[in-house]
Amino acid sequence: MRERVRSFGLVAPSIAQAAVGSGLAWLVATQVLGHTRPFFAPIAVLISVGIGLGQRLRRVAELVVGVGLGVGVGDLLVTWIGSGAWQIALVVALAMVTAVLLDSGALFVAQVASSAVLVVAVLPGDHAGGFDRMLDAFTGGLIGLAAVALMPASPLTLAAKHASGVLDALSTALEQAAEAIEKRDADLAAEALEEARGTQVAVEEFEQALETSKEIIMISPMHWHRRARLARYETAAEPVDHALRNVRVLARRTLAALGEMHPPPRALADAMREVSEAALLLQLELAAGREPVLARQALIAVANRERPEQLGFSAAVILAQLRSIVVDLLRATGAGHEEADTALPPVDDPSPG
């Protein structure tokens, strides 16, 4: 229930935008434009605002063009063949073929087809012209964008929530792998691998949340001053994705290593925990709007630790993956490629220097 309440808090602004915008779009279309049944005006608001993640500017463009094309095909055919089951089938087929030839976007194709169906099936007696309906859609789209700009969701809250999910998953997988090494427990290692394999969805949601957050900041002047804070999340997104990919390899190799004659030393578990804690530090500093200096220092400290000696093959692979994760997370803190790479001592030199 707590998770549902938190999720509602994220979509509540979009619900308000959709509700207020729909009513306002109907009012403008009826009272200002003089249209008697401006069906497409509130629908345009709903599509342009939505309650999820998406590209609103592209949505509005596809909506307006899609409505115009669908209405045009529907109006043209209904005057020739009337309305009915086979007429709807024919109109949908022709409208979708035309849409696919012009643009393969799913929303565009669906909008063209649904608009044509509305003209043939729902509004066959409506004498409003295609231009009026297109104007309704355009009006609703603009009002939807205005609602997003004037009643915006918090782009940083959106980015922070999904970034926390990704970094939490990374930290948890490393903790589980470390515990598996300490206890010599293959079942725990299997759980760590399963945890790591399930992280890609969180990464994709984070990337989508970033796109939406950037869009909100671009549309809404109220959030322009937060561009620098959002830029830190943008910097972290790709390196954190790479770090999670390396965590998956590390977890798989940990499971394999525990079945070997010489399991990985417990010193590797300590290093994993330090990297796990650094990932949580990164999460906290990003959420606080600070340059992630503490996380960077923690990662450099791990990088400069003395490497365990006489490692078996799997343990050596685990160490190599852990080094890669450190480099990825250093880049996520804002360090450049060269700075992150040089933070690690050479592989053939076990000394901390």
Helix/strand order: HHHHHHHHHHHHHH
Task: Give the low-pLDDT segments.
Answer: 349-353
* CA distance, first residue to last residue: 51 Å
Tally of individual helices: 14
Coarse morphology: elongated
Percent of residues in helical segments? over 70%
The biggest beta sheet reads:
none
The average pLDDT value, as a whole number, equals 79
Sheet-strand content, in percent, reads under 5%
> Over all CA atoms, what is the radius of gyration?
27 Å
CATH top level class name of the largest domain: Mainly Alpha
Total domain count: 2
Instruction: Report the count of strand segments.
Output: 0
Regarding quaternary structure, what we see is: single chain
Overall CATH architecture of the largest domain: Up-down Bundle
Pfam families: FUSC_2
Protein name: Integral membrane bound transporter domain-containing protein
Domain Integral membrane bound transporter: 25-146
Keywords: Membrane, Transmembrane, Transmembrane helix
Short overview:
With 353 residues, the protein is mostly helical.
Can you put this structure into words, describing what you see?
With 353 residues, this protein is mostly helical. 78% of the residues lie in helices and 0% in strands. It is built from 14 helices and no strands. Helix 2 runs antiparallel to helix 3 (56-81) and helix 3 packs across helix 4.
Could you give the topology of this structure?
Blueprint lengths: L1 H31 L7 H10 L6 H26 L3 H18 L3 H17 L7 H21 L4 H29 L2 H12 L2 H20 L7 H31 L8 H22 L5 H11 L9 H20 L4 H6 L11
Helix pairs in contact: 1-2, 1-6, 2-3, 2-6, 3-4, 3-5, 3-6, 4-5, 7-8, 7-9, 7-10, 7-11, 8-10, 9-10, 10-13, 11-12, 11-13, 12-13
